[in-house]
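Reopening this one. Same input as before:
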Amino acid sequence: QSCKADTGEWSIAELDIKEWAAMMQLKLPSRHLVDNDKTEHQWNLWLSSIGAGKVALLYVYENGSTIKTFPMLASFKRACIDPVATDGAGAASDVTLQEFADRLQQRWGSTFQGAAILWRMWANEMVRSLSRSTWEVAIEQPPPGVVARLFRLAEASLEQQISGISRSANLALYCVNAAIAANNQLLQDWESFGARITENGKCLVARKDVIQSFIDDVLLPRDVADPME
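Same output, byte for byte:
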């Protein structure tokens, strides 16, 4: 959001989501803009007063509602949006490109290595938007893909990456070894369970034989004559 100090200097402030209402304003056809500094109760009363079927327009201000006139917009752009130095076509000048190439190298030189032309290519990609308000944030972002593949990792960063890969590989190896050990234990348990099941089957067969012998001793043979007949 655009902010203007008492001294007349323009600046840009980052808004919290709760402050987004300051970037928008409602307007009814043929009527003035609606004041958006209302409480929830006042908004409910306003909605009830306009009646059903009426259309309200929602204006969203790109730079906030502080800017009321075109001269104010031009002043704000000169101070915060437009590149400080431009060429004949209005693009960022070589001076601006070199300034941001140096800043990018200062910020990312410990991570990436490359020729001076690569840092200028990165700076050129960054200032293409022609909105200076986005450049400070863009400096903190990694290079775009079209530029990133042309750089090489700095030695310190490369060592950190190799060290990280080594730790990840060792962790993966530890997990696999633990899984193999658990699987071997499961096989041993399965063999033990199989042996117990086999022994239990033998016990059941022995008990069956004992019961069958008992039955054979109790029942009379069918071919023995009844002495009472």
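So the earlier flakiness isn't reproducible anymore. For the record, The helical segments are 40-50, 70-81, 94-108, 116-126, 135-139, 145-148, 155-218.
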